[in-house]
Specification:
9 helices; globular; four-stranded antiparallel beta sheet; disordered C terminus; alpha+beta; about 240 residues
Length: about 240
């Protein structure tokens, strides 16, 4: 029977090995996996809070984590992280405090590594350090692309874009209040637009989730020129 560290190495290889860049050597994966700690975070439990000194880097194994901050007295959702996403490394590398709150949106399983161990690991594993640099760079590029996409359209296009990007197997597990925070809109306006999209047969509203009925049509509303949603990338182009 496989040990937990072997299971983790296999999972990391699927997400982080990558076909777009050179795969990580097995010994690098095993070394990283051996240092990862797994914790369960019930929904509503914080991984860290804004202003705290970073002590661990987190990799989402399952579930979802919400990144948010308070701006001018208003809670703003910055991003929803899901399986394979990494958080906490940039503040660690830059020696700055955490810029936002990270809270489990659903019951989540999180892998993490403490800061000192990660530094030592990257020092002795240069290919892993290179891969991690690619991860940070790609996440930054994705964030910039997301900002451009959100700023390019009106509220309806922004909502459609978030739904396309967040859908998993045709379902978006987001409350309307969270969706409103993600696009910076008021909940009544977001609810009105969602009902309009539902009337067009593009989606169906359910309690706590939204079912996508016409992904291509929703992508067109988002201004994606009829493209299908960008797939969840298990190749590591967003991650390690």
């Amino acid at each position: 029977m496989e040990t937990p560290s072997v299971d983790r190495a296999s999972w990391i290889a699927r997400f982080f090995g990558g076909a777009d860049h050179a795969s990580l050597p097995a010994e690098d994966l095993a070394d990283l996996a051996a240092e990862l700690r797994e914790d369960c975070y019930p929904a509503g439990t914080p991984l860290f809070r804004v202003g705290e000194a970073p002590t661990r880097v987190h990799i989402i194994l399952s579930g979802a984590v919400e990144l948010s901050c308070v701006l001018k007295g208003r809670q703003i959702v910055l991003q929803i992280l899901r399986s394979g996403d990494v958080v906490g490394d940039v503040p660690l590398f830059l020696r700055m405090t955490e810029p936002c709150d990270a809270v489990a949106l659903q019951d989540s399983r999180i892998l993490s590594i403490d800061s000192l161990t990660l530094h030592r690991l990257l020092e002795r594993r240069p290919r892993l350090a290179w891969r991690w640099m690619l991860s940070v760079s790609t996440r930054l590029a994705d964030t910039q692309a997301r900002l451009v996409e959100l700023l390019a359209g009106g509220l309806e296009a922004q909502i459609a874009l978030v739904l396309v990007r967040q859908a998993e197997h045709g379902v978006v597990h987001l409350r309307q209040s969270v969706l409103a925070e993600l696009v910076g809109g008021r909940r009544p306006s977001v609810n009105r637009i969602l009902k309009g999209l539902e009337a067009q047969g593009l989606l169906q509203l359910r309690y706590g989730q939204i079912e996508i009925l016409d992904e291509a049509g929703l992508a067109a509303v988002a201004g994606l020129n009829g493209q299908r949603s960008r797939p969840k990338q298990a190749s590591g182009s967003r991650h390690l």
